Amino acid sequence: MENNRVIIAGVDFTPSSRTALLQALRLGRITASPVRAVHVADFSWFDDLSTFGHFNGSRTQYEIAQRARRLSEECDAISTPLPQFEHDVIAGHASHVLIRQVVEHNAKLLVLGVRSPISSVSGPGPIAKSCVRHSPCDVMLTREDHPGAFRRIVACTDFSDTSRRVIREAAKIAERDSASLRIVHIAAAPRLEYAAAGNPLGIWPSDPLNAMQSWNSYRSELPGRLSRFIEPVLNGNLKSIDMIAEVEDHDHHARGISAYARRNGADLLVIGSKGRSNLREFFLGTTAERVLSDLPSSVLVIKPSEAGGH
What we know:
This protein is an alpha/beta fold. The protein has helices at 15-31, 46-49, 57-77, 94-104, 126-134, 161-177, 193-196, 208-234, 253-263, 279-284, 287-292, 305-308; strands at 7-10, 35-41, 85-91, 109-114, 138-143, 152-156, 180-187, 242-249, 268-272, 298-302.
C-alpha cells in the first residue's frame, strides 16, 4: 500500500467494526498515513418516527454522532499517535457513502469489519460485498477476532497483472508484521463432462483425451512458471521473509483457495478482485466473490492497477 494516502475505516458500532478501526489505525501508524473513520447513518426513517410525539430526531442524530466520536477516540487512545486522524458521521446509504468517501479522499485502502468464525452468518454482509465490488481502491475485510499483526499470510496468484500486486502487497505485509507468507496457484483441471454434454457452446476440444494430455503437460510446468513469475515481482528485496510458493490441485478455484487458507492457518488472505477470467466465472461470479462467500480469514482484496490508481 502506498504511503501517505488516506485509509478509510467503516464504523457501525459492532465488535467487528471496532476491530476494523483498530486495524486501520495500526496500518496508518506503520505507513505514516492519515486515517478517517466514517459512520454512515440512515436517517430516512426518522420522518416516520417523528409522528410519534416522544421521538426527537435531532437528539437521536446528535447521540449517534457522539457515540461514533467516542468509539473513534477510544480506539485512537490505544494506538500510537497518527499523522492525522479524523472521524465523521454521514447520512445516507452505507455502501454509497463509503465509496464516495474513497473517491473524494483518494483513499488507498477501505477497511471494514466482518463477523467472527463463530457467527451463524457465512461471509460478509451486503454492504461489505458491495464495497468490494465497487470500491476503486483495495478493500480489507477484517475479522472481529483479529485486530493486531498478521502472522500467517496466503497470497493467491493466477499469473495476471493484478496477481503481481497481490504478491507485492502480501510480501510487504509479511515483512513488516514478521509473518510467514505462502504464495499459491490453484490448478483446476478441465472437466471432461462438458465434452460429454454435447459441447453446446462449441468451445470444448473435440478430443477429451488430447485435452487431458495437454493439461498434464501444462500442469507439470506450473511450479517453474510460478517461480519465474514471483522472482521479478519481489525483485530479491524481501529475502528475509519466510516464504513458500506452491501449486495446489483442486477441482474449483474459489473452494481451493478457501481450503488452502484454512489448512495453512492463514489469518490474512490476499486475493485479486480481477484476474484471468474464464467462461464459468463469467456466468457464476468472480473467484474473489466466491471466496468471500466462504470467508476463511481476514481478506485483503487487491484491485487492478487502473482501478486503484497505483
